[in-house]
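Dear U.,

For the methods section draft, I wanted the exact inputs and outputs in one place so we can describe them consistently. I've listed the two proteins in the order they'll appear in the manuscript figures. Please don't edit the token lines directly; just add comments below if something needs changing.

First protein:
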Amino acid sequence: MWREIVLWLFIINLGIALGAGLYEHRVVISQWTDIPPSQWPNTGLMFWAYVTTVPLTLLTLISLFAAWTATQPMRTWYLAAAAIIVIERLVTFTYFIPTMLRLSGMEAGREVSAGLTQWLTVNHGRHLLTFSGWLAALRALSLLRS
């Protein structure tokens, strides 16, 4: 029963992270190219810390254990989902968060514009990881009763 609850929470959080990430990418951050970094809202502290930075990271670690101790055929899909999101979390903590913090502390100019463009381009890969992890977790959920 606990594994099912963790999986449900993992799936719900991934869905929120994916939707919010796509919205932020398309609507929020894409508008930042026209304003100086000092005026960018700190979406990390305003939203992401409460949605993914802490909750998704903890759910991912708990899901690794839950998936490892699950039975087949669910185990493979659940482990795949958790592993994909571990990669996504590592990329987030090693590239996305530090890069955004660095860019937001700079003066407006070409370096910020180029950095923001690169961040947005690489972010497509992060969305793909989140989407893939979400789909694998949904598949694991569909096999829960098998």
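Second protein (the one for the lower panel):
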Amino acid sequence: MTNTDSLLAHRPADQFGRAVAMRLSSGSAELPYEVRERLRAMRVRALESRKMPAVAPVVVGRGAAASLALERTWLYRIGSVLPLIVLAGGLVLIHLVQTDRRATELAEVDTALLTDDLPPAAYADPGFVQFLKQSGRGE
């Protein structure tokens, strides 16, 4: 088995291509030498472009040092999900703090209304603005 056959033999979808290549090779004996060499060079280039790239380890830079990242481990997966978890936790914390502040503000307003000299019904009275104006002058 030649180098060309070994490259084509490992893929079942290339059986048709192998049959075409054998047919072309059988008729090339009658062609001039220059044409046969050009065809051979083109076949080699086509096979070179068809080759699968070799998988090489990736060099990952970390500050001043470099390390090889050969595969994505469970630690890598946790490290990639961890920022999302921290972000979601931060958003929940912000929501809780704002809700607590709002409840505190409402409690302060309610406390001020209930401990004031006026009853709460007075704030709904149409003459309340007049009362405020008079009490402001009297002081």
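Candidate sentences for the figure legend, describing the second protein: The first strand starts at residue 58 and ends at 62. The chain has a mean pLDDT of 75.

Thanks,
Y.
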